[in-house]
Amino acid sequence: MSTQALQHSSSLQLASFVRLNEGIKGVVLIAFQINIMALNAILLSHRAGEVALGFGVISKELRTLSVELTRLMQALSTDAYLAVNLISDQLRRERRQQLLQTTQTQLQRPSAALDAIVAERKTLFLARAQQVREVRLRLLDQLEEARKLCQFGTAISRSAKIEAAYGREYGRALAEVSQEFDQKIQTILPSIETLCAGMQRL
Description:
This protein is mostly helical. It has a single domain, classed as Substrate Binding Domain Of Dnak, Chain:A, Domain 2 (Up-down Bundle). 91% of the residues lie in helices and 0% in strands. It is built from four helices and no strands. It has helices spanning 3-48, 53-106, 112-164, 171-200. α1 (3-48) runs antiparallel to α2 (53-106), α2 (53-106) runs antiparallel to α3 (112-164) and α3 packs antiparallel against α4. Residues 30-66 form the Methyl-accepting transducer domain.
């Protein structure tokens, strides 16, 4: 692959990781909203008493899910930031490598010292490319874990709807909360899927 092609590939990767970081911020915001909603739902279920015991348990599960999702997103953000730094450094190295190779071809006589520098830079470049691949694979694993967590969240939010039906005079309020849970979870899933697809294309 030519240096220009490598630079183009690295630029595309950089843009993908920047988009990933933006997507993560959106998911963290929704996870925070679910956490607040879950706390309110726990308080509501306490007020409702025995008729909302099941709803209270489910609300606690959703709160745990939101905390775990936030933790996952923070780990993702750390790795995405690392990838951005690695690729930015890679782009700088590619430009230097291009200059060295241009100099190498313009020399009248071969230079052993320059050949050694070019070879060393190429080795460093390949090592950095491997680091980027490792971070990308780690990101894919974390995104898959987040996707499974959201699917579990969908199941829990549906259970909340069922439990809300037993809430008697609190039934309407519980049903509204369970509907909001479901909407928030349904908002996260497409975001996670989009982030996964973006990483898989790299």
